[in-house]
Amino acid sequence: MENIRQAVERAKGRPQQHGGVGFEPSLQPNRRSFGDTNEPKERAEEIELDLAHLHSKRIVAYDGKDLHSRHFDMLRTEVLRSMDLKGWKTLAVTSPTPNCGKTLTAINLALSMARQPERQVLLADLDLRKAQVAGSLGLKCREGVLGVIEGRIDVDRAIICARAGGSRLEVLPTASTSDSSDLVGSSAMKNLLHDITGHGPSRIIILDLPPLLTGHDVITILPQVDCVLLVAAVGTSTISEIEECNKHLQTTDVVRFVLNKVPESEAGYAYC
């Protein structure tokens, strides 16, 4: 926590740039299962993403040659090293409050991981109150998470296979709803998480969760994830907010801390 405090304090009052990140080790019923049915499995819908749209949203990690992707490649290496060491498969991404860049970080990290041919990566949008994954990727969400937990569609049909550059990323998007708390705590949501995490040892699941301090959704889901990536932002997050998050995450493994909107003068300084 002291390293985080120093990083945030050091960054105050300096010009900011987008895309810089810093990270450090840990803080202290009946259904059809995905991939487990005797019926022929439908292929996930395949979509080639619009690279110009991605670039406009600062999504760059599909291209390993893009200089801005190096931050996410470094983060990928550190996160996967920790996850592989402990056999973890499910990573939740959250932030203290909105506007910290958690969804952008989750998407870029997922695309960076997906460039590795031996990895199968699924990015699921569980920020049901303010879903942003589909819009950020330029995808249309017809059913997604809500359709699955409300029983209108099976998980395998709700997943979209998105391709961009060298990345092949599975995406489980969602539309927004005001009933997020009831849905997140439902047995249908537990079944959904069980289904997507039981699909083989090579799959990494990245869950884009709501901001931690804006409600109870994250606390409800945490027992079902292996580890957490906490994303804060210079000029947005306060030390007290980060400390409050740390209290809520004391029983959860925080695999890394990411500091977004890092000052330009420290853009190349990745570790807090």
UniProtKB/TrEMBL annotation:
Q: Which Gene3D superfamilies match?
A: P-loop containing nucleotide triphosphate hydrolases (3.40.50.300)
- Write down the superkingdom of origin: Bacteria
Q: Which SUPFAM superfamilies match?
A: P-loop containing nucleoside triphosphate hydrolases (SSF52540)
List keywords of the entry alphabetically.
ATP-binding, Nucleotide-binding
A GO MF label = protein tyrosine kinase activity
Which cellular component terms (GO) are annotated to the entry?
Answer: plasma membrane
- What is the protein's given name? CobQ/CobB/MinD/ParA nucleotide binding domain-containing protein
> Which source organism?
Bradyrhizobium erythrophlei
